[in-house]
Amino acid sequence: MTESDSETTAIEAAAFRRLLQHLMHERPDVQNIDLMILAGFCRNCLSDWYRDAAEARGITMTRDEAREAVYGMPFAQWKAQHQKDATPEQLAAFAAVQKPPSES
């Protein structure tokens, strides 16, 4: 099956919107540090990529605007409602995955 560029873009956009909905509404309990440990990216990464994509299309966007697009609310509000302090175990796991492979 061959898809046109516009169909591919529409499918990718729908998948991205579904990911955002999942992270915002279905799994707000999953902490960003856990996403970073397991997947190597988090909601903040997504917001940076979102802003980069906007700017590549000539659309100026602040970091706060991009985060609100990804979090579904102002970042400060998200943090107050959902973000917990990282545990010592999470910090250790995060540090472990930050080491280059040659140091493992």
UniProtKB/TrEMBL annotation:
<feature type="domain" description="SMc04008-like">
    <location>
        <begin position="30"/>
        <end position="95"/>
    </location>
</feature>
<dbReference type="Pfam" id="PF06844">
    <property type="entry name" value="DUF1244"/>
</dbReference>
<dbReference type="InterPro" id="IPR036810">
    <property type="entry name" value="SMc04008-like_sf"/>
</dbReference>
<dbReference type="InterPro" id="IPR023163">
    <property type="entry name" value="SMc04008-like_domain"/>
</dbReference>
<protein>
    <submittedName>
        <fullName>DUF1244 domain-containing protein</fullName>
    </submittedName>
</protein>
